[in-house]
């Protein structure tokens, strides 16, 4: 894939999403119940924002990366159906969110596919 200039008018704050994921994934201690609920809401909100955005730009990715994106999106959908009160739910969803934002960032910098 060849990187080019990102497309304009990108309303998604990638840095904030990455920071939220890092907070969850690299915290040396457990969160309070209130902080867990707050972070859960943040991560799930990021995912709800990113899923349709990633879906709309996957055609900009190589075939292999499109397969990865399809897998990540399917796994995210599966995990969204799981009970949210498990000890690992927040961490698992932060992993999914980080994967989605990485693929989205990569896809939005990729050149648009040529019309056939």
Automatic annotation (TrEMBL):
Protein name: Uncharacterized protein
Organism this protein belongs to: Streptomyces fuscichromogenes
